[in-house]
Amino acid sequence: MPLTLTLEEQQMIREATERLRRRYEGQLNAETVERFVVDSVEQLSTRAKTTVWVPLLAERFAGDRLRALIRLESPTGLNPAVLFLCVHNAGRSQMAAGFMRHHAGDRIEVFSGGSEPSEALNRAVVEAMAEKGVDISHEIPQPWADEIVRAADVVVTMGCGDACPVYPGKRYIDWELDDPSGQPLSVVRPIRDEIERRVVALLEELAPA
């Protein structure tokens, strides 16, 4: 059963909708933006245990879905897009997305998601990434969405197995990596470094400097 949003949270969502409308003005009409926000709120509040993060996450989730929709409607002349998927979107996929944004800049469109998103990021992962100069502390785990999977040129999966979405004709890469969940920083560091190595190699393949 969906959680009930407070009046303050409802107002925050209205403000988020307006920000997204302005961001995509000229690319998407206001009705499409509002529809995606409403649907994102419904999806998130259905699975959420608390509504605390729903307004912020709904804005990010809807924003990612709208970015993907624009790619689907304009499939030519775009930079490559990569979607990183794991179970909780709190560790491996967030590290991979953070490294890709850090190294690629605007050469790659980056998305991430999880089959069963956690409520918050793994703190050891956040600390490990900060050691490399990559700040992911403001990220929030979120689910994957149909538009995002279809818009990605490459889908990189990390431990989500059969729960990861499979679309015919889509390029998939599976990275077998240890799960950093519940691990101390000393264990997370080598996982982080291996993810960075693979991200850099993928970047050089998709968008050589």
Provide a descriptive summary of the structure in words.
There is one protein chain. With 209 residues, the protein is of the alpha/beta class. It folds into two domains: 1-75, Corynebacterium glutamicum thioredoxin-dependent arsenate reductase, N-terminal domain (Helicase, Ruva Protein, domain 3, Orthogonal Bundle), CATH 1.10.8; 79-209, Rossmann fold (3-Layer(aba) Sandwich). It has seven helices and four strands; from the N terminus they run αααβαβααββα. The protein has helices spanning 7-23, 30-47, 54-73, 92-104, 123-131, 146-151, 185-206, and strands at 81-86, 109-114, 154-158, 171-174. The chain has a four-stranded parallel beta sheet. α4 (92-104) packs across α7 (185-206) and α5 crosses α7 (185-206). It is globular, with a radius of gyration of 17 Å. The mean pLDDT is 92.
Q: What's the helix and strand layout?
A:
Elements: H1 7-23, H2 30-47, H3 54-73, E1 81-86, H4 92-104, E2 109-114, H5 123-131, H6 146-151, E3 154-158, E4 171-174, H7 185-206
Parallel strand pairs: 1-2, 1-3, 3-4
Helix pairs in contact: 1-2, 1-3, 2-3, 4-7, 5-7
